[in-house]
From TrEMBL:
<comment type="subunit">
    <text>Homotetramer.</text>
</comment>
<feature type="binding site">
    <location>
        <position position="157"/>
    </location>
    <ligand>
        <name>substrate</name>
    </ligand>
</feature>
<feature type="binding site">
    <location>
        <position position="240"/>
    </location>
    <ligand>
        <name>substrate</name>
    </ligand>
</feature>
<feature type="binding site">
    <location>
        <position position="64"/>
    </location>
    <ligand>
        <name>substrate</name>
    </ligand>
</feature>
<dbReference type="InterPro" id="IPR015868">
    <property type="entry name" value="Glutaminase"/>
</dbReference>
<feature type="binding site">
    <location>
        <position position="114"/>
    </location>
    <ligand>
        <name>substrate</name>
    </ligand>
</feature>
<dbReference type="Pfam" id="PF04960">
    <property type="entry name" value="Glutaminase"/>
</dbReference>
<dbReference type="GO" id="GO:0004359">
    <property type="term" value="F:glutaminase activity"/>
</dbReference>
<feature type="binding site">
    <location>
        <position position="258"/>
    </location>
    <ligand>
        <name>substrate</name>
    </ligand>
</feature>
<protein>
    <recommendedName>
        <fullName>Glutaminase</fullName>
        <ecNumber>3.5.1.2</ecNumber>
    </recommendedName>
</protein>
<comment type="similarity">
    <text>Belongs to the glutaminase family.</text>
</comment>
<dbReference type="InterPro" id="IPR012338">
    <property type="entry name" value="Beta-lactam/transpept-like"/>
</dbReference>
<feature type="binding site">
    <location>
        <position position="164"/>
    </location>
    <ligand>
        <name>substrate</name>
    </ligand>
</feature>
<dbReference type="GO" id="GO:0006543">
    <property type="term" value="P:L-glutamine catabolic process"/>
</dbReference>
<dbReference type="InterPro" id="IPR036513">
    <property type="entry name" value="STAS_dom_sf"/>
</dbReference>
<feature type="binding site">
    <location>
        <position position="188"/>
    </location>
    <ligand>
        <name>substrate</name>
    </ligand>
</feature>
<keyword id="KW-0007">Acetylation</keyword>
Length: 424
């Protein structure tokens, strides 16, 4: 049986079939030769299954969609503060190949435009490996296959790369980039010439959606903080001077490339990728933008579209004898985030437990966000102050770091002990 998700992706291609706006990039001669009729779409959820339709095996150069990944690697290498001291995070409102520098600091405005991406590439050095080798290795780990550079595209762009070379010389001469401009631009151009399919891009996007963990191999490629930062910069700067329109209409962090690809990420859910070579006036794939609009509307991807509010963390409150003593048992569930923990604290504040022994059964809790951890431990401290004894049943160790500052009566029980205690 064919998956309805594949049928849906076919439908996206069909519904945009008569869309023929835009023109293929011609400032890189090799790209001018691209077949404008090639088209593909793919999506991959954080579970790692890729669904793709159209010219799914067709390879094209990643171009600027490499920028967020190079930036993530630089942040992992050097730490965010160091990278921010070289490259800003403000949308430039200008075309991707402008020399958009902050007038005060002289830093490139952001890492998603060429000036910032060349400076980012220049920050990447490895143990003997060139920055480009590291990028190719990164792409291969993200896509679960061996990624190659399209040498014809790389050479073609080197021959006509005067503008990027000019940007790099200006960055170098103003002190914004220490690396030899020719080395930085050649490496950056090779990074952009990595050859990928929509299938590859969906996996790359899904890794960002999955907080930096490649969904199939389980490898943590970027830490959570880095991923969050990179997605924020993609949201505000990823679509160049169309970034504001994009965020309001499509509503997800995204990045386009001049070969015709666009990736988009809904954090925690899905990565999507589209491909169609003709570009609009902003240098974004024209049909790709159209397909992304449809994906966003049909699949409910817009970030600002509030989803179902989180369930209350409190599944039920029970009063029972446990190990022969009366106890109040709060059975918690799901992800503990601000809105879900608020209902738990409200219940405790409005109906304080009537037994001295208070048990928090966390065996059904999935994840505890820092805000919930803080609120819960403050709540526990208050209960201890009131003279209650607290038991935590936390088999997944979701709150391992809870400690009462005065070392008071908090006990950790296993789920079995609670079950047997109630039965006793
Ligand atoms: N390699 C291309 C360039 O630097 C990347 C630009 C893009 O994809 N927008 O011009």
């Amino acid at each position: 049986m064919r998956s309805p998700i594949l049928d849906y992706l076919d439908d996206v291609l069909e519904r945009t079939d008569d869309f023929d706006a835009g023109a293929v990039a011609d400032y890189i001669p090799e790209l001018a030769a691209a077949d404008p009729n090639r088209v593909a779409v793919a999506l991959c959820t954080v579970n790692g299954t890729v669904y793709a339709s159209g010219d799914v095996g067709h390879e094209f150069s990643i171009q600027s969609m490499s920028k967020p990944f190079a930036y993530a690697l630089a942040v992992e290498d050097l730490g965010l503060q160091t990278v921010l001291s070289h490259i800003g995070v403000e949308p430039s409102g200008e075309a991707f190949n402008e020399l958009s520098l902050d007038p005060e600091s002289g830093k490139p405005r952001n890492p998603m435009i060429n000036a910032g991406a060349i400076a980012t590439h220049a920050l990447l050095t490895g143990d003997g490996d060139t920055a480009t080798e590291r990028m190719i290795d990164l792409f291969s780990r993200l896509t679960e296959r061996s990624i190659d550079i399209d040498e014809a595209v790389a050479n073609s762009e080197m021959e006509t790369g005067a503008r990027n070379m000019g940007l790099a010389y200006l960055l170098h001469s103003s002190g914004a980039m220490a690396t030899d401009p020719r080395v930085a631009v050649e490496g950056y151009i090779r990074q952009c010439a990595a050859s990928v399919t929509v299938h590859d891009l969906a996996l790359m996007a899904a890794t960002l959606a999955n907080a930096g963990v490649q969904p199939n191999t389980g490898e943590r490629i970027f830490c959570r903080q880095t991923t969050k930062h990179v997605l924020s910069v993609m949201a505000s700067c990823g679509m160049y001077d169309a970034a504001g329109d994009w965020l309001s209409a499509v509503g997800i962090p995204a990045k386009s490339g001049v070969a015709g690809g666009i990736i988009g990420i809904l954090p925690g859910q899905v990565g999507v990728a589209v491909f169609s070579p003709p570009l609009d006036a902003h240098g974004n794939s024209a049909r790709g933008v159209e397909m992304m609009h449809r994906l966003s509307d049909d699949l409910g991807l817009h970030l600002m579209d509030a989803g179902r509010p989180a369930r209350s963390s409190l599944r039920e409150t029970r009063v029972a004898d446990v190990e022969g003593e009366p106890a109040t048992i709060y059975v918690l569930q799901g992800d503990m985030v601000l809105s879900s923990i608020e209902s738990l604290t409200r219940e405790i504040v409005e109906n304080p437990p009537k037994t001295e022994l208070v048990i928090f059964d966390m065996s059904r809790v999935d994840e505890v966000l820092p805000v919930a951890r803080r609120t819960a431990s403050e709540m526990a401290t208050k209960l201890l102050d009131e003279g209650y004894c607290i038991v935590l049943v936390d088999p997944e160790n979701t709150v391992t770091d809870f400690q009462d500052s005065q070392g008071r009566n908090v006990q950790w029980w296993s789920s079995e002990r609670l079950e047997q205690g109630i039965g006793a």
